[in-house]
Design goal:
The chain has about 230 residues and is of the alpha+beta class. The chain has one domain. It contains 6 helices and 12 strands.
């Protein structure tokens, strides 16, 4: 039986104030947003890769009424997060560049992974346009470094014994933050317009970190508009 991992909340206040406990490691403020976010993406005309958008660039766009409504949502969401001393980043993403194609060594955001921190912290994110981020319940995945055959390959690459040095090697290269779905895993979508708060890996966290990834890039797929903090 799967442990409930997701809790839906009804406001931003609930999103930031609800404690993570009893296995819940993902909070979702469900919203139906007004406005044309696709128009913003189109007017930006972002080339391949990731472009961060500041307030000045957003305000400089000439938009229709629906586009202006969407822009106001983007500005308001960032202000909400800043009011909690967070540092949101709004990105228009037109594909990713994966420098390492080997599944064994992948540590890019399109690989199933958890975020980590040295102190208590959570990740906030919202997809406004394009393919949405995805999540995976902890029971439906295994760390890649814990899969025997993959651990064996990593040990060969490391060239040593399964000792403290090997564990440091995994940590320094973020390899211990990435996961492999189990055969019957059923990923879930974060959806469009919903603002999420997900648990990270940090010392003495009361819940396991939320496993997630950016969606796979498909040919002809439109750019994504993503807020993350």
């Amino acid at each position: 039986m799967l442990t409930p991992r997701i809790k839906v909340v009804g406001s931003f206040e609930e999103l930031v104030m609800t404690p993570m406990r009893d296995g819940i490691n993902a909070l979702c403020w469900q919203r139906t947003l007004e406005g044309d976010f696709g128009e913003i993406v189109e007017k930006l005309g972002v080339e391949k890769g990731i472009t961060s958008l500041d307030e000045e660039r957003l305000l400089a766009l000439e938009l229709s009424g629906a586009g202006q409504v969407a822009r106001e949502v983007l500005l308001q969401d960032q202000e909400l997060l800043r009011s909690r001393e967070l540092q949101p980043s709004l990105d228009c993403i037109n594909g990713y560049v994966n420098e390492i194609e080997s599944e064994l060594l992948r540590t890019d955001v399109q690989s199933w992974h958890v975020d980590s921190a040295t102190v208590e912290a959570d990740t906030y994110l919202c997809t406004y346009f394009g393919a949405a981020s995805e999540g995976l319940r902890n029971e439906e995945a295994m760390r890649r470094v814990d899969v025997p055959e993959l651990r064996g390959e990593l040990l060969q690459l490391y060239g040593g014994e399964d000792d403290e040095g090997f564990r440091e090697f995994l940590n320094e290269n973020y390899l211990d933050l990435h996961y492999k779905p189990l055969p019957d895993a059923l990923p879930f979508s974060f959806g469009l317009g919903h603002l999420w708060r997900i648990a990270t890996l940090y010392p003495e966290s009361p819940v396991p970190p939320c496993i997630h990834r950016a969606p796979a890039t498909l040919p002809g797929q439109p750019p994504r508009l993503l807020l993350i903090s």
